[in-house]
Amino acid sequence: MAGQSDPHLSIFSAPEVEFLAEDEVIEIVPNIRMESLHMICGDFGPFFPQIAAKVPLWLAVALKRRGKCAIRVPEWMSVERLTQALEAERESPREFQTLPFHYVEISRLLFDHAHDDIPDEYMVRSLIEDIRDVRFHKVETGLESISGRTHAVKLKNLSAMEVNIVRPFIIRTLQAFYKHDSPQMIQQPEATGNRRSQVADRGPRRDLRPR
Amino acid sequence: MYGRRASQLLGELAAAETGQLTVYNSDTFDQVIKECNEHNVQLQSLFRKMEEQNLDIQTTRNEDYFGAVIHHLSLARNKRCLMAYMYNRAETIQSLRWKIGKKLPQEIQEKLSFSEGEYFKNHSAAIDSYMSELDLDLTVDMIPPKDPYIQIRVLDDIGEVSLGDLEISLTRHSVHFLRRTDAEQFISQGLMEEFLG
Amino acid sequence: MEEEPMSVVFQVGANGVGLLDPGSETNNVEKGAKVDLPFWLAHDLYLRQATSINVPACFNQKTRKEIQADAACVDLRMRCPYFYELGCKTVPLVGDKSIGSFLLQAFSSRYKEVLSKSHSTPTTTASKFLPRLTKEETQLFEAAQSSMASFKKWRVGGSRLEKASILGKKRKTTLPIDPPSP
Questions:
Q1: Which of A38, B143, B170, C170 lies in the 20 to 30 Å Cα band around A171?
Q2: Which chain B residues are closer than 8 Å to A4 by Cβ?
Q3: 0.90 exceeded by the pTM?
Q4: A72, A29 contact by CB (below 8 A)
Q5: Domains located in chain C, CATH noted
């Protein structure tokens, strides 16, 4: 599916990333009685009023929009947990905090379709915005350290949407550096007797972190 | 300079916004072909001159030979530019089937040469026959879908249309609730828009 | 890129191609004539040992000094829009490997400038620095801009189904609330 919206670039569009996020499982509290649903991705239900059930996000949103359930907001989306996360993000300029891989998409879907189920909605919304900003700034600072010796970029704990945003830029950057730092282009200062393996010669893998 | 006009042709492609189609430039295209013939005439005459002097074309490296080489290279260069021009346009034309649909609006038709129009028709027919074999419309849901039905507003007088088992009159500014797959093509053609009430 | 002019010296004479040498009186190019040829022709003639190639002006000492002084401020597009590409293809022809290190140095120092402007700056404020970028740098910049733009569009929401971009832009109304149509 990657690149369906633009066959020339093998990247996901934002709606495509959201589509992937919709497979994440979330808890709902139905207000109806319904038989089990047998889907390709698995069976869900049966559903009983006021008894929590786990379903994929797309199903939760579909039921919610028809007024058939309330969505239980995941724990990481509480004001308390998000405040902690934001502080931790600010305090550790070298690392990204562990957040759900699809936190950007999940939170947006919930804001759009289940905002009445989110306690302190505005607070949660602005905390998530702040966290994203801080993290993105970190990514940018980290990208400064890319050089000719970089041949892979390690991004621990970065989320799907965040990776997706910087992917086109990073790919082009790495290609450009790789091209300009190839042995055909640059005189190798080391003596030829010093034969190291080709892999070691490309320099260490660089963690994407500010120095 | 040799090859200059051909590269101007490619410059037109490069200058256009990505994904946009420019008007087929048959004038320049024909001029480049003429240039090619010119190069060919010169090339032949230089070779003839060498043959008249009883020189072996394979091994002689004189002024005539290098002149011929330059004409040959220019010819090849022109040819390459023309192919690139055609190829790039063909790619865009293929994508039209996915982006707009079977019928091309006037503004696009005007930009195509005759053979490009034929190419689109045949390409489109090939996709259609493949899809009918699969019994699946591959051109819908290019963007991950949300709901099977959407509300739309008609932007232009479309008239009576039959959608599946439904006969519907699409007049300008009217709002309808349609199957998304039925509406998608009208939206991409700019005849409707999704109406988020 | 292959149209970029290269200054070459003919090592042989060539008949019937006087057009290449504006100074030539006859329809021929003499041995030793100094001519500007597009890269594609210069390259192939070099492979046939018919010409020798001079290092293009954008890789001379003056440009190198300017890059060393303040890489980000140099208008490389004016010097050669295909600066890096031409550089890469020139190295094997002129046997001057210092061009390679120069390209890497230029790219590394200019890259930071592109990076700092690419994701978070609106295009309008970047307009002062954009015209200085080479083709390759512009593509890098645009890759970042467009992916950020599509993310922002997604975050705002609204209709996803749109008129195909290849069609004219007139009557572009994709926002949920439209001005009343006339």
A1: B143
A2: 142
A3: no
A4: yes
A5: 1-54 (3.40.5.50), 58-154 (1.20.58.2050)
